[in-house]
Structures are given as C-alpha cells and as structure tokens.
Amino acid sequence: MAKDTTITITLKGEAIEATPPPLFAIREEIVLAWHDAKAAGALQRVRSTAILLSCPKLLKESGYDYARAKFDPLNFGGAAYSWLREKHGATLAEVATAGDALIVAMSEDLFPREAEVQERKGFSPAAAVG
User: Fold this and answer.
1) What is the pTM assigned to this prediction?
2) Stretch 38-61: mean pLDDT, rounded?
3) Count of CA atoms in the C-beta half-sphere (13 A) of 106
4) Residue 127: how many other CB atoms lie within 10 Å
C-alpha cells in the first residue's frame, strides 16, 4: 500500500486516522483470514487485528504484541477484540464497520480488479492473444 494511505475509522464516536500495516505479508494474512472466517466471532477477531495493527496508538495502549501471537490474526484478534470492547469501549458495530473498511482497503490493494491491472500495466487483451 502507499505509505500515505490512511482511512478514517470511528471508535467510541471519535474519528481515528488508521494506516494499514506496511508489510505485505501481514496485510495478506489479515485479508485471507477475513475471507476464510465463517463464524461471527472469527470475523470480529480478524477485524480487531486489522484495527490494532493499523492504529499504532491503540496497539501501544493495548500492550499487545502481534509477534507474541505468532503473527496469527485469529490468535491476536481474540485479545484485541476483548480489549477494544471491554477496555477501549468500542461498540460491536464500530469494530465491524472499522475493521471491514480497513480490510476492504487492504484487499483492494492486494488483489486489484482486472480493469485496474489493465490500466496500471497498459495491458491489452488483444496483445496478449496475438
């Protein structure tokens, strides 16, 4: 993602500027875990991971360390979700909305739509066939 990519999310009724994690692998892990999550609890854990890893101030306040969770979005997300809801005071809807906004932005960066790929690379289907 571009270094200046910021997304405004809302938690506790306050706007917060969030910047998705700079490492491709972490963004990809989050997006794939979100895609694979079937249960509501798993979705909230992944969303919470996206929020804390995109908001360094909140991550620091939480005291959690993604590396100690073995870089696992679901493992880290359980503690992150509990902290966001119980300690930080975010609502269920705020976590869902903020997390989804961040994950969609990461997903669109990691997996661009066909039209965007063609535009970026000057790709022409006719040239590819011929």
Assistant:
1) 0.84
2) 97
3) 31
4) 8
